[in-house]
Specification:
heterodimer, A: 307 residues, alpha+beta, BirA Bifunctional Protein, domain 2, 2 domains, three-stranded antiparallel β-sheet, 10 helices, globular, B: mainly alpha, Non-ribosomal Peptide Synthetase Peptidyl Carrier Protein, Chain A
């Protein structure tokens, strides 16, 4: 059976429908909308389902705020690869006279950006970043696994609903030997496809690349693709032909282990990998596939989310 | 060859090696590598390969099209030299 909600793929109509059904709340800036209680319930239920599937993984839970140390970001090389996505925290540090000047400019709708100066924090661009410094040193024989649920920021203003500037990722990170992390990454890809199948989502996995900046980025993406370092699970949400990436499965080789001094139990440079599940996108994939009212979703889907 | 093309006493391969020496940050000295030896195995990173690309564009007054922005293009001195032969100074 096909119904209108999963055959029409206009992104702006989908955005309007999410607003009309009181699932998201526009705030006047693209990609920063609010989420309603219904939307949040689906998101939390999905997150709980992921937790249930990974309950035996011995993953340590960590929670960091949505800002990270600027030095940490500089150390990861993020600004070499993704200068266009970064958000940096600037704040006022002036005296009273400068405060009055700031106030005057705001009141008269003038540019006040140069009254602020760069601080020690940046918005966290990837859920796993604050975890790597905690791995510094020698890993246990079985390696380490950490899980987080973090808000992340990407400077990508867009009026299509799946491209957000601020969103949540349920993330798992593994550090260990190359064999440990790559088999773990592959296990998560299969596991996630299984979860998506239970939820009746038309999901497919594919080799993917990160959105590296500029011409340098094209070279880096080519290298990443050839080494099969990144996979994504895609579900049609705003386009049938260009489905939306809802999860990613990434091998980092020594990208984080070298700068953060992460060693395997026998002293070699370790490998790391991460798995990120884009929670808002998965909620939208469910709403697109099964309809905008979750009480009407198939019982076979609902039983996994509301057991 | 256009009459106004810059002339250099060095061969293209020698000029490529100069650019690699200046921008490649190789772990192995460029002088000890043969024309077909892998630059990646010699320590060329993705980021350094960008600086090599920009250095080559300046040295040869060319611009690499998107179709050549691939790992294989910068695999070796020979690969770079043969890619350059397909490009016209602009």
């Amino acid at each position: 059976m096909t119904t209108d909600h999963n055959t029409n793929f206009d992104p702006y109509e989908f955005y309007a429908a999410l607003v009309a059904h009181k699932l998201i709340i526009p705030v006047g800036v693209p990609g920063a909308f609010g989420r309603s209680a219904i939307f949040e319930d689906i998101l939390e239920r999905f997150n709980a389902l992921v937790s249930a599937h990974s309950a035996d993984d011995d993953a340590q839970m960590m929670t960091f705020p949505p800002v990270i140390s600027r030095q940490l970001l500089e150390k990861t090389g993020y600004l070499d690869s993704f200068p266009h996505l970064c958000g940096t925290v600037f704040s006022f540090n002036g005296d009273e006279r400068q405060a009055r000047e700031l106030s005057r400019r705001v009141g008269e709708k003038e540019d006040w950006s140069n009254t602020q100066s760069m601080g020690e924090l940046v918005l966290n661009p990837a859920a796993c970043y604050p975890v790597y410094p905690t791995f510094t040193g020698i890993l246990p024989v079985k390696g380490r696994t950490v899980t987080m649920l973090h808000w992340v920021f990407r400077n990508e203003p867009s009026n299509e609903p799946t491209r957000m500037q601020s969103f949540r990722v349920r993330e798992f990170v593994r550090a260990g030997t190359e064999a440990q992390v790559s088999s773990w990454r592959d296990m998560w890809l299969e596991r996630s496809l299984g979860i998506f199948a239970k939820l009746g989502l038309p999901a497919h996995s594919d080799i993917a690349t990160d959105p590296f900046f500029g011409r340098a980025g094209k070279l880096m993406a080519d290298s990443q693709r050839k080494n099969e370092l990144k996979f994504e699970i895609n579900v049609p949400v705003i386009s049938k032909t260009a489905p939306t990436a809802c999860c990613s499965f990434n091998c980092h080789q020594d990208h984080f282990s070298t700068p953060f001094g992460i060693k395997t139990h026998n002293g070699d440079v370790a490998s790391t990998a991460c798995v990120g599940l884009g929670l808002e996108r998965i909620v939208m994939a469910l709403l697109k596939t099964h309809g905008l009212d979750p009480t009407g979703w198939p019982a076979t889907v609902r039983k996994h989310l509301w057991p | 060859m256009p009459t106004n093309a810059p002339t250099s006493p060095l061969t293209a391969s020698e000029r490529v090696r100069q650019v690699l020496k200046a921008h490649g940050r190789l772990a192995t000295a460029i002088e000890s590598l043969g024309d077909t030896d892998s630059l990646y195995q010699a320590g060329l990173t993705s980021h350094a390969s960008i600086n090599v690309m920009l250095g080559l564009e300046g040295e040869f007054n060319i611009e690499f099209p998107d179709s050549l922005l691939k790992r294989g293009t910068f695999e070796s001195v020979a690969a770079i030299t043969s890619a350059l032969e397909t490009l016209t100074p602009g």
